[in-house]
Specification:
It contains 2 helices and 5 strands, in the order ββαβαββ. It has one domain: Translation Initiation Factor IF3, CATH 3.30.110. Strand 4 and strand 5 form a beta hairpin. The protein is 24% helix and 31% strand. The radius of gyration is 12 Å and the shape is globular. The longest helix has 13 residues. The termini are close together. It is α/β, with parallel strands linked by helices and 87 residues long. It has a 5-stranded mixed beta sheet, with helices on one face.
């Protein structure tokens, strides 16, 4: 289950960040799922994406783990999304 809220960037300085923009398109979703799978309950990661990753978010919603979703930046060049594992 995904939920959304806003968070100031200053609160995210110690959170690991994955820049999907530098990952080849064919590998991108697999790399992101691998990174999300490495998060323990309560841990977060920030994804930087070149667009609003709606298809990826639908895939994440289907995972057995649950993540809270926070948009930190919504375009115009990149989207920064914080994922926090909740279960």
């Amino acid at each position: 289950m995904l939920s959304s809220m806003q968070l100031p960037l200053s609160a995210t300085e110690q959170i690991p960040t994955l820049n999907a923009c530098v990952i080849p398109h064919a590998l991108r979703h697999g790399a992101i799922h691998g990174a999300l799978g490495s998060r323990a309950v309560g841990e977060s990661m920030i994804l930087i994406a070149p667009h609003n990753p709606i298809p990826l978010l639908n895939e994440v919603e289907g995972r057995k783990e649950s993540f809270e979703l926070t948009y930190l930046q919504e375009g115009p060049k990149d989207w920064h999304i914080k994922f926090t594992r909740t279960a």
